[in-house]
Amino acid sequence: MDSGRRRFLGRYGGVAAAVAASLALPPGTAQADEARPDTGPVLGARPGPHPGTGHERFMWLAVEQARRNPRWPFGAVIVHTRTGEVLGRGVNTGDDSPLLHGEVVAMNDYVRRQGNQGWADTTLYTTGEPCSMCMSAMAWANLRRVVWASSIDEIRRTDIIQIDLTAHQVAASARSFYTPELLLGGVLADHTNHLFREAQRLRERFPDERRRER
């Protein structure tokens, strides 16, 4: 190797390697300095290092959970708002119990791993807007930050029955004891809307013996 090439690699080789590594990251993963949810601007919260990117990164993790149940793709993850550590995961397992929506499964997983504590320091990401049952559970837990992708109206369009109450309406009804910091919908909704439409086609092609609600 000639001396000019050695000088070039010595000066720029590390930079090139770092760029290549970042481009190789699959969707939904984050390097250490990007691994926190986007936190601002909400009630004085400090924005993360890359505002506007955190929510999508963590929603991809919820999508990964949703893909475990392609007929009913409701997936959720709970992450520590400051560090981005994943503290709970879940996917709809309604065949086992009508209570086991993706958010509830993720909350149960969180309790198994963390105990029934620390909810106010977390953010829950879910592929579908929480139903009244799930949003009520979050209010009781004081889980103050909730981010979803597809809206209840979009989910209803794919022949999944829904109680006609939005997450915002449920939270407002609990205002005497619950003050959310963030209720945000529509993150990666184009992707999850497609996911729910594909699930509808799958159910129509291979129908269940019974019609199941969300």
Share of residues in helices: 40-55%
One letter per element, helices H and strands E, the order comes to HHEEHEHEHHEH
What spatial form do the alpha-carbon principal axes imply?
Answer: globular
Main sheet strand line-up: 2-1-3-4-5
Q: State Rg.
A: 20 Å
The largest pleated sheet is described as: 5 strands, mixed
How would you classify the helix and strand content by structural class? alpha/beta
Chain oligomer state? single chain
Q: Spans with pLDDT under 50 lasting ≥5 residues?
A: 1-36, 38-52
Which percent band covers the strand fraction?
5-15%
Average the pLDDT over all residues and give the rounded result: 81
Number of separate helices:
7
Write down how many β-strands occur, each being a DSSP E stretch of 2 or more residues.
5
Quote the distance from N terminus to C terminus.
64 Å
What does this entry look like structurally?
- Strand 1 and strand 2 form a beta hairpin.
- With 214 residues, the chain is of the alpha/beta class.
- The model is unreliable at 1-36 and 38-52 (pLDDT under 50).
- Strands 2-1-3-4-5 form a 5-stranded mixed beta sheet.
- It has 7 helices and 5 strands.
Give me a quick take on this structure.
The chain is α/β, with parallel strands linked by helices. It has helices spanning 3-23, 54-66, 102-114, 132-141, 152-156, 167-173, 189-205, and strands at residues 75-80, 86-91, 122-128, 145-150, 182-184. Helix 4 links the parallel strand 3 and strand 4 (145-150).
Strand and helix layout:
Layout lengths: L2 H21 L30 H13 L8 E6 L5 E6 L10 H13 L7 E7 L3 H10 L3 E6 L1 H5 L10 H7 L8 E3 L4 H17 L9
Parallel strand pairs: 3-4, 4-5
Antiparallel strand pairs: 1-2, 1-3
